[in-house]
Amino acid sequence: MHLILGASGQLGSRVAHRLLDAGEPVRAVTRHPQRVEALATRGAEVIQGDLLERDWMPAALNGARSVVLAAHGLVPPSRKNHPDAVDGTGTRHLLDQASRNGVERVVHVSVAGGKGPETSFMKVKRQTEGHLRASGLPHTILRPTVFMENHALVLMGEPLRDKGSVTLFGRGATPLNWISAGDVADRVVEALGDMDAPDATVEIGGPEVLSRLEVLALLEEALGRSAKRRHAPVAVVRILKGVVGPFHPGMRHLLELVLAEETRPDSVPVDPTRFQWIGPTRVAEVVERWVHGDRSAA
Ligand SMILES: NC(=O)c1ccc[n+]([C@@H]2O[C@H](COP(=O)([O-])OP(=O)(O)OC[C@H]3O[C@@H](n4cnc5c(N)ncnc54)[C@H](OP(=O)(O)O)[C@@H]3O)[C@@H](O)[C@H]2O)c1
Fold it and tell me: Which CATH superfamily is domain 2-291 in?
């Protein structure tokens, strides 16, 4: 049985569907079971679980050979459900229970780093990676770059298609490496396929370095529609972080990432020599499939 945290998300849902395609048993964890109805219909067991709580964990782990960690608390920004609580404490509690339950393999989806100082979000991810290594649980840690499906399609494509307007933080000109969640899902499934593989931490990226503005141009071309662009100025983001951040951990993490991308480009991963694997899918392919409603290759 494969236990999947974040089974309703971009990555977790793809992992779950790929495993079901291969006839593997899947247990999907979500706080909102209606979000994984498509998985339930295909035979996945559904567990209502929240990483901020622990009571559901023993039942979820019972009989689980592997655990996929693909949940995060970064978006939407929340006072209660934020990276320190979800990617940090909650995930670490799950790992503690997993080692007591004889789980044979953990695939942990972390995040790639840049050359510069780590953001608070990255520090939380790295702490949990360290906790996993220290647990003795056999594991693969994947550190992917920016997912095309979230950052291109959800953040820009959908508002462009539905409202004709897109909001960018700052100029949106920082070069970013983009990977498709589908390629990451393939790597997760591959890691689950070899239960005896040595422990590994793998930085993975995609084939292109593009700014958000360049990706927006691809979306505009594919949709045949120009975006009314709004740019939230960096100064405003900085003030917002100073005012709201101390009381709102979710906003603090998110705004720090936004500011780092705009003002410290060395905080984002772009250098292909850092990647041990580069996914084949290009942004234009994901955009084309989305525009034409082709889910088969997702
Ligand atoms: N998106 C990116 O660009 C990117 C880049 C690099 C690495 N990653 C990493 O890849 C993994 C998957 O990200 P994604 O973009 O696929 O996620 P996503 O689509 O944003 O979905 C987030 C998932 O986290 C779950 N979640 C949030 N709070 C939770 C809580 N308290 N308890 C249990 N589950 C909770 C949500 O489940 P429910 O709401 O259904 O409960 C949802 O399935 C994460 O570890 C993320 O850090 C993402």
Answer: NAD(P)-binding Rossmann-like Domain (3.40.50.720)
